[in-house]
Amino acid sequence: MSRPARSSSGDSPAVAVVGGGAVGVTAAADLAARGASVTLYERGDLGAGSSGRAAGVLYDAYAEDVDAALAARAMERFRAIDRSLPGFEFTPCPYVIAVRDGDPDADAVPAMVDRMRSHGRDVSLVTPDALGDRFPVATDDLAVAAVAEGAGWCDPASYVAAMGRRARREGVAVETETAVSLTGDAAELRIEADGGSGAETREFDAVVVAAGAHTADVLADVGVAVPVVPYRVQALTTGVAYDGPMVYDASAGVYLRPRPTGLLAGDGTEPVAADPDDYERGGDDWFVDSVTETLRERVDAVSGGELNSERAWAGLCTATPDGDPLVGPVGRAGSLFVAAGWQGHGFMRAPAVGEHVAEGVLASLDGTDADSESPWIDPFDPDRFDGGEAFEITEGMSVEGRIGEKR
Ligand SMILES: Cc1cc2nc3c(=O)[nH]c(=O)nc-3n(C[C@H](O)[C@H](O)[C@H](O)COP(=O)(O)OP(=O)(O)OC[C@H]3O[C@@H](n4cnc5c(N)ncnc54)[C@H](O)[C@@H]3O)c2cc1C
């Protein structure tokens, strides 16, 4: 079936969003809420990509000004969505960044905390003794810690499902089980969609590519190269009861959070490029062993007993050369946009990024982004790269990555 005619009418621009993860589904709902005629394409079910495999750790403890503002807005929206969207629950929970004795990153923590506080984030530097007095975690081997109070956790799949329902209510046409490819040029950007009702080609005023680990492949269809490289990370759950804070043991590179029936822990970053169509989705034995060891050292409830991992799994994050995402117009003026490259922090930023993308796309379409009040965030400009650069994949949560002096 072919439907080449532009589907916009009157003042309502037709926008396609490619990718039904946390970012795409939020952008789609927010675009529709602002009057766009939106079609959301997802090759599987909503949340089938990284969002459905994420840990749901949410915090606003960022040292860079743009990151801190975006995270503050995201947390504000998670709380509001908890009140307004049935099926989604945000659980407030402090987030601890802990650095061990002998780890050179310990020296950087006070300055990191100062920068977070300078952006209004409720983060404090604490001694290991004070941390141990407050929480059921081992602190004897720590040099220093920071506690971010404005944090929390959620079930990421429930966010995508609830936001998907909101998108439908706002009038978004949600096409699941529909893989798309892009064709055409700047003047006539087209989507070839292959879904349940067969193949069809459609033209849109704007296309937003929020295809997670497949983003570079989708954009390559129309000759746009972006350095967004997938890499594998892992997580596990266990039934051990834990009612402490979320902890990032920066020296071990392991994070953990409570969950209703136990504890979730992760990292296991593999700093090599992964094939999004062919990667190992189960957790590795080495990952389970190394996380088990860290949990024994850190969590009082685990130290004496068995961990008994219930489930271990892997998913993909996406790296960029400078660790910042690509968000905004890309390749061709006005009609093609990208939102990807989260370096492990895409889910927690999705409520703010989706809103930002919706406002930016609509401003670009009506020409109001041409003045000095561009809605887009400069450090995230997709065109800051050629697309062909070679770079090392680094883990996104490290203290070094958070210190925030790169911009
Ligand atoms: C184990 C693990 C733990 C994590 N923990 C956290 C965490 O605690 N906090 C956090 O912030 N982040 C976390 N992340 C990272 C987080 O999952 C991602 O940054 C985030 O989910 C990215 O969302 P997205 O919408 O950009 O991408 P995705 O959720 O991957 O969505 C992209 C979608 O596009 C679809 N798609 C791809 N190609 C096409 C096509 N051609 N046509 C149609 N659809 C297409 C895919 O099927 C997919 O559903 C974790 C990731 C993993 C794997």
Automatic annotation (TrEMBL):
Residues 369-388 are annotated as: Disordered. Residues 15-359 form the FAD dependent oxidoreductase domain. Pfam families: DAO. GO terms for molecular function: oxidoreductase activity. SUPFAM superfamilies: FAD/NAD(P)-binding domain. Keywords: Oxidoreductase. The keyword Cell membrane does not apply. Its EC number is 1.-.-.-. The keyword Oxidoreductase applies. This is NAD(P)/FAD-dependent oxidoreductase. It comes from Halorubrum yunnanense.
